[in-house]
Amino acid sequence: MMSTAEYLEDPAQAAERALALLRRESGLSAAAIWGASGATWQKLAGFGAAEGLPSAELLVGGRLPGPDGGALALRMADKALGWLVWRGRAPASLADIAALLAGHLHCAALREEHSAARRVNETMLEISLLAGEGASLERLLPRLHRLMSRLMDVGNFSIALYGDDGATLHFPFYVDRRDPAPPSPQAMLPLDDGHAALAAWLLRGGKPMVLSGERIVELCRQEGMPQPAALPAFWMGAPLANAAGGFIGAVTLHTYEDQPALTSSEQLLFMFAARHVGFALDRVLYRGRLERQVWLRTSELEGANARLRAEVASRKRTEKFQNALFRIAELSNSSLSLEAFLSGLHRLLSEMVSARNCLVALYDKVNDRITFPYCADEYVEALHPRKPGKGYIEQVLHSGRPLLVDPYSQLAAPDEEGGVRPQSWLGVPLYCDHELLGVLAVQSYDGEASYNFRDQEVLEFVANNIGAALARVRALESLQQAYAELEQRVRERTSELDAVNAQLEFDSLHDPLTKLPNRNYFAKALRRAWDGYLAGSGDRFALLFIDLDRFKLVNDTLGHLAGDHLLFEAGARIRSCLRHYDFLARLGGDEFAVLMFGMDGTEDCELIARRIVSEFERPVILAGREVFSTASVGVVLADRDHYHKADELLRDADHAMYCTKQQGRQGYTLFSHQLRIDQADQLALESELRRALEEDSQLLPYYQPFIEAATGRLTGFETLVRWQHPQRGLISPALFLPMAEESGLITRLDRYMLNAACAQLQAWRAEGRVGENIALHINLSSANFHDPDLVGWIGERIAHYQLPPSMLHLEITESALIDQPDTAATVMQALHELGVKLALDDFGTGYSALSYLHRYRFDVLKIDQSFVFDLDRKEESVAIVRAILALAKALDLDVVAEGVETAAQLAMLREMGCGKLQGFYFAAPAPARGIDWERLARFERDIPCAA
Ligand code: C2E
Ligand code: CA
Ligand code: CA
């Protein structure tokens, strides 16, 4: 019998074995066993004339094999699993064998069912897993198709899905053995394509659908749908639903007539699988949608994010620019120099762009030059001003537009200075009020920083905002420079002024020639000494007034250089006589003064005064000549009993010196009480002279005649003043003329005398006492040369008294010529033109005598009485007189010898050929009415005899 293990056999084997058993045990002529295979029947085994036996379909339909046979349904739990049909006599064991066979078939069916179910489950699981894999629809659908093919023949298979709009259908997967072209995914309208139309129609119905070929034809006609290009014999479709029950598309399967039709279990399986495919696709689609949504959302968010970032960046940039603007403003306000401003700007710029190398170029329109007020560069130390060339800077200046040069730029690199060529260069123009000032540029030598348009924007922004600041700082700087220059000049000027002031102060207190203190300084020192003496804090002191005798003569004869030398030497000599604490000053001209401290008595003063005087006895060598310049000294001892003011001391010392002069110079005079009285007297005399000049009675002209030496004839008179003082009696000119000179009254006195003399001459002429050959000499002080009206006035007087001008001889002393040589020349020329004669008085007393004779036009020369006086005593005087006479002869001058007192003098002068003579020998000066005309006439007779 059959073991249980045999149940596991193949149904066909089991059927064979069952028939073999039956053959053995009975006389059956034929038998067959049918097994259910899905919805159909399959002959599992048979023998004999089995073909004559009815098939399973017939048996099911109720047909029996006939009377000589039988048929038995093989059942298990009322389920027909097969048929046993036979012909012949059935053995007794048939029922058992049939039951065994039924059990066998049942097992096989179960086994078949189980494996099919397992396959389906596995497939469904894989479909679900497929959905979970996350693959895209395109990759998923072929795999889905492969999985489906495990379950059934899916040679013609399609999946239709709704588009996102939920209305159109498309076919992401379509296979067809006859019509490989899938329905167009674009043309998703149901009417476009037969298959698409069927799928759409299916979805409209919302139910799985199985159609035969005829039904399709009928349906298409009914619905007005296109037929599929190749008409299937069988068409089946199921909607694809999602978990919520909504349709997402459809899955279809069809076969053509040459293919086996699908069994009903396959159809059921298809519908079952469709549900899984629906869920799986829904998941995938959902995920796709989700992903799309996520992607969309993400990109939306990313967009928003980018927008925000851009906004933030732009805000930051605005902030940065704003900040830069503030800092530029701050910089321009706080920078004192252009350099400080520009380096600050560079720092600021570095925070915004890569600006390791930065330069500012300014264009100087006036000089057509480019200057570089700022240059920070890795390779270039400094840029010097230059004429515009062909550089990048020039290109910016020329175009007035930014210039960006990078390694990829087509711009030909110009020859920039420095040799190293930048990899990237960015320059923008600097404007101020539309005026192009220059260029702001940054450059990079390595590839690290390559400038772009953002950098250009930054640079332009900065450039736009520094133009005004630059102009302002530049103006400020030039202002500062101007200030600095001004300050420097003020400093220089101040120090110059200080030096000048110091010099001035020194100058104001010192004599430039001898470098000794001057009158000013002396006055101060004197006052201080006096105050100290009065207060008891200082020593008693003496004041010496020193005047060089005949200094003016030296000065004029030997020149100013010699004069200066003499003064210098004089200062040194005086100094040598003093103690170091004595104060020596040059008061002016040839006047010196000394303050000698610690003087208690007159002896000390006199000692020093004597020393000084003797110091000047040595000659001074000037211009190779030995010159004797003696000194006249006046001494005053400070005395609080007699003086109130320091000035009084100086006045008295001066007076004492003057007394020395009057006493014949070269010596000293100690100011005494008597001198003070005399001085007071002088002051009284001055006012008295003033009064005397206003009346005619006091000042009297005396006349002293001139006698011609050869003939004894009267040739003229000299007018000499005498003062008939009401109290003092007759005063000689020696006593009041110095006072008249000093007080300036002398000019009035001279006019007075000249007028009186002219009147007298007119009178004499009227009386017939004198002819035109008589000369009337009048002394004229040098002070008159200052009087511009003098010549006019004299001319007027001459006219007034109707005198021939040549009768008047004006006597002038050398001192007049020394004091004002030019004025003297002018006045003398004018007098000469007037027709009056000029006589040089006291000739021979000065060194310059000879030069005067050449320089001025004199008519007469008067030999000083000192020579005449010595004539019979000193050989030297004879020589001098001879020389003078020779000179006068050569110059064609008349000569008058003064002071002829003796016959010997007369004889000598006559012998020497002197023209005219004057002196007591002939007559003393006498008033007009006192002239002894008789006596004068006698000389004419006597003198030749005397010779
Ligand atoms: P002086 O021009 O040289 O005048 C000659 C002086 O010699 C006069 O002195 C005269 O009296 C004096 N004298 C004449 N003969 C002899 C003589 O033989 N022996 C001596 N020892 N002396 C004699 P006087 O009149 O005292 O005048 C002195 C000086 O005063 C004059 O010197 C003259 O320079 C000046 N003087 C006189 N009258 C005037 C005047 O009206 N105006 C001006 N500016 N000066 C005058
Ligand atoms: Ca005279
Ligand atoms: Ca004289």
Automatic annotation (TrEMBL):
Residues 539-673 form the GGDEF domain. The keyword Coiled coil applies. Residues 682-939 form the EAL domain. Keywords: Coiled coil. This is Diguanylate cyclase. It comes from Chromobacterium alticapitis. SMART domains: EAL (SM00052), GAF (SM00065), GGDEF (SM00267). InterPro entries: Biofilm_reg_signaling, EAL_dom, EAL_sf, GAF, GAF-like_dom_sf, GGDEF_dom, Nucleotide_cyclase, Rev_trsase/Diguanyl_cyclase. Residues 476-503 form a coiled coil. SUPFAM superfamilies: EAL domain-like, GAF domain-like, Nucleotide cyclase. It holds the Pfam family EAL. PROSITE patterns: EAL, GGDEF.
